[in-house]
Amino acid sequence: MSATSANKDDFFAQTAVPERFSEKYELMKEFVSKHRAIGNRVVLVSSGGTTVPLESRTVRFIDNFSIGTRGSASAEYPLYFLQHGYAVIFLYRLRSLEPYSRHLQRRLMDMLEVKGDSVTVKHDHTSSLKSILQQYEGVKAKDLLLSIDFTSLAEYLHLLRASAQILNAIHSKALLYLAAAVSDFYIPKHEMPEHKIQSSTDKPLQLSLQLVPKMLKPLVKEWAPDAFVVSFKLETDRNILIKKALSALDKYQHQVVIANLLDTRKYEVVLVTKETEKPILLSKEDSDKGLEIEEEIVKQLIARHKHFIES
Amino acid sequence: MSATSANKDDFFAQTAVPERFSEKYELMKEFVSKHRAIGNRVVLVSSGGTTVPLESRTVRFIDNFSIGTRGSASAEYPLYFLQHGYAVIFLYRLRSLEPYSRHLQRRLMDMLEVKGDSVTVKHDHTSSLKSILQQYEGVKAKDLLLSIDFTSLAEYLHLLRASAQILNAIHSKALLYLAAAVSDFYIPKHEMPEHKIQSSTDKPLQLSLQLVPKMLKPLVKEWAPDAFVVSFKLETDRNILIKKALSALDKYQHQVVIANLLDTRKYEVVLVTKETEKPILLSKEDSDKGLEIEEEIVKQLIARHKHFIES
């Protein structure tokens, strides 16, 4: 271990196994076994941001802007993952958006009304909600969606490793769709104060964060070498985006990078492979109709995953 | 301005006026005018954590663990603030818990069912939801609750100053209940990189954060000198808690500090004034019955505020 970046083994050794880890591990294992027996493909969709605690008894942490829009939409697409013979493990940041319920988050109290002895959804919202609820019930009935939550970076990485290793049992039928926004930096446990950092001293707060080891490397090489792996690259500077996507493919040897810019990520992404750069765009008209770019992203990936399985 | 801490004027000068600020300002102003005419008291409840951006085009930020439990419960208490002749301005972190809807956040999809042409709440949940919904409708009908959202530290402080200044118009009838978890540190604009910090260089990330000027001082002295002001002190170390609460009262000359520890904050707080330390406890039995400690906190404060107005 150099002074500035730990390798993956150091990282896992330095961080405690998360709470309820073995319970989550068993849930994922059973889920994959079950769908393996049926012959289903399984996609792991990771979603939301990871926290990086600044104190052991954590009051403060570093986070990022993600609320899980991309991941929760992608995990849901009824015409796609879930109805193309895929079961979904949704590995998501606690309290970020979730498939189906994401449609209900805003102004929920205003959608309900008391009618005699019952509480019902107001007429205006009934038809859209009915269709979402029916999709959700269908997915539950067939046990096609397993949601597993995380909060911190360490929890996420322990669960990512476990799920990748579990998914390798279904070889090329596994798709990893890594949409979570994972921190690049962290504070190792031995460098972290136990108690809340005090502000009474009239000094600036100096924080020194180490690089998180790049987990895509062991994921592709060791944990799930047979799987189809899709990573995401988010930047704010258009000039470096594609270069960074290509460099990731070269470094980690996985199949696809979805490259996107912070400001335009809901309307424009580029699907980058070693050989091709395919822009995917959502027009203003389609967006106004309520369509989402995730539909086309997922469609493209399913086609490529099919090809990958067959070849 | 010293190298390490800005004064409040520097802070406001360095940070842009938040988006939709004037709209929010007008909403608060009208709300206070209206309730002033009726003779109502008005409480400002601040709730949730503030973000501290690390980049101008923000991907990463420092946050804290608060999800607005204390604030959203306190703003709601139907037998207390809202039914004791108080109107409530709820200044809250976007996507944190809100009064009333906080009861619905978990497993919402599982509470609903399709029944013929309508979507209704399942029988098990009807009675609790009905009562919450009726309270919510009553509060809406009387316009007793105004919700104003913020995300960043700068947004929060601009809105806090504005609301305090507006509330000073009702003098001692204003109560400020500052439950938001406000960052002590920030990165001034001129020290912040524009783009997402790159992790490709094999170096630790060094962050230097400055102290946020203590806004309670100008709040008590200049913005709302006639109001009853309650601040919160959260620590992880029991040994320094009361000492820090007393030192805040001495420094800022406001009326009450609610002191609490991270681990026990839902069962135990101490209401600290210059003269008294009153512990408020919630027993295991009461907690199991669904009671919340905020009920007793608010009750105690209303009594003290009444005394403050009369004297």
Low-confidence region ranges of chain A: 1-5
How much helicity do the residues of chain A have?
A: 25-40%
Largest interface: A-B, 64 and 65 residues
Q: Give the assembly state of these chains.
A: homodimer
Structural class of chain A: alpha/beta
Number of strands of chain A: 14
CATH topology of the domain at 2-100 and 146-226 in chain A: Rossmann fold
What is the 3D form of chain A? globular
Report the biggest beta sheet of chain A as strand number plus sense, adding barrel if it closes: 8 strands, mixed
CATH architecture of the domain at 2-100 and 146-226 in chain A: 3-Layer(aba) Sandwich
CATH top-level class of the domain at 2-100 and 146-226 in chain A: Alpha Beta
**What's the N-to-C terminus distance of chain A?**
39 Å
| Average pLDDT, all residues of chain A | 89
Strand content of chain A: 15-25%
Radius of gyration of chain A: 21 Å
Number of helices of chain A: 9
Q: What name goes with the CATH superfamily of the domain at 2-100 and 146-226 in chain A?
A: CoaB-like
Report on the structure:
The structure is a homodimer of 311-residue chains. By secondary structure, chain A is of the alpha/beta class. Chain A has a domain at 2-100 and 146-226: 3-Layer(aba) Sandwich (Rossmann fold). Chain A is built from nine helices and 14 strands. In chain A, the strands form four sheets. Chain A has an eight-stranded mixed sheet, sandwiched between helices. Chain A has a two-stranded antiparallel sheet with strand order 2-3. Chains A and B meet through strand 3, strand 5, strand 6, helix 4 and strand 10 of A and strand 3, strand 5, strand 6, helix 4 and strand 10 of B. Strand 10 of chain A pairs antiparallel with strand 10 of chain B, so a sheet runs across the interface.
